[in-house]
């Protein structure tokens, strides 16, 4: 009987390379590369997603997106999420720095700040619908501390809706950045702090000349990923508002165009643009980081 | 003077931490309050008022039964289990051959996995949907399972990192004893990868449990709903019954909370590792 272990190691090697890479590669090609190729193909067509016939229309879809303000203006919403990321990083960095030193109830604070980033997205969406609704948590809190005059229609007013949603996004994702920063900071050797203490450096000096340089790369990575995060914002606004009152993001619009209005061709062109933005940003970041290492 | 400054700095620190904890907890605590109130009590009291009876489970039973949350839990558990086992096996298999063997096309393969990280999943859904449709997997749990397996690149990285720290000498001594590569993978590599497997299970598990989009788009059938989509459906029939929605929210969060409290140490490590590419 032919047994695998009786084969020579060179034959085994070949067999195992083929066997072990087959499924992962098949999945990679089917669900990562094939969709991209198809997406480019669809983006030059007028396909509706179900008819057998598909007509190529050249760059018509792209021209429409770039010339019709209805399509391109949603990027303005991304700006809110983009700005929010800076706030989020700042908070995460602040909490990570103070919690990397001796603190009472350290584990409690660590857990409480981090837990939101593990929570279910739909649950978070609902929690903040309750938080922002008229007479909800925020309004009641403002009234309780005597700031009742600041009560607004947090999700009904197009001028502030994106600030409310971006705030929710900070609440949700801050803990993730925080824990990553905390991990990076805790890998700094404690000798450095001791030496700094002897030199009489205060906490701010220590932050600036020890912590910041050691986590610079991870900070850069996160900041630039923030751009792609901002243009691909989806969960929170979709669950909370469905994109109403001027809170529609590019991704919500793309999916609506594809699945609600059955314009798969047009939606694919939008997705291609989004993909190109994200790739450009990522490459830019890799170049910048590499440039600095040289 | 110096001492005064230290005290001031330290009070600012604790004030910031307390404020941070307050903001992180308040939105959740008010939901817990609301979930334990009766309908009339909810209407008459402010969100910040604690419930009169802390043991009023009526909303929970209503949410759990009418909201089909049991179906949600069963489906989520099934998808989680298969996806995680699959991701662990396929991820460790590909990492094993990429780390241990030199062969033609190896760097191409590694490059293909790397390049795929550049493609954000949400941009390609429009055409991924067509593929799932053609494979006739729409409205089956396999749509989600395959997508969770197929897009898993983080796992490969984590396994690759860990394999670097497992000495090749171990493989070699096993080969002297006549072990096949398959035995080496199954008996030596896989058990030693345990810490990496825990990391992958946690990261994968959190992502799958919280994912809303994939089941929403690919498995709209009610009998296939997962926790996320079951909860999302509360928006319709219970639109104004916040005490019931709140109970649903808490039910959805409880498993995460239990997992977090019991696996804290691993979760912190896992997330720090998973983010360093």
From TrEMBL, chain B:
The entry's keywords: Cell membrane, Membrane, Transmembrane, Transmembrane helix, Transport
Regions that span the bilayer: 12-36, 77-98, 110-132, 144-163, 184-209, 244-263
Subcellular locations according to the entry: Cell membrane
Gene Ontology CC entries for this record: plasma membrane
UniProt xrefs under InterPro entries: MetI-like, MetI-like_sf
Organism domain of life: Bacteria
Main location class: membrane
Lipid bilayer topology: Multi-pass membrane protein
GO BP: transmembrane transport
Family: Belongs to the binding-protein-dependent transport system permease family.
Protein's recorded name: Carbohydrate ABC transporter permease
Species name: Paenibacillus polymyxa
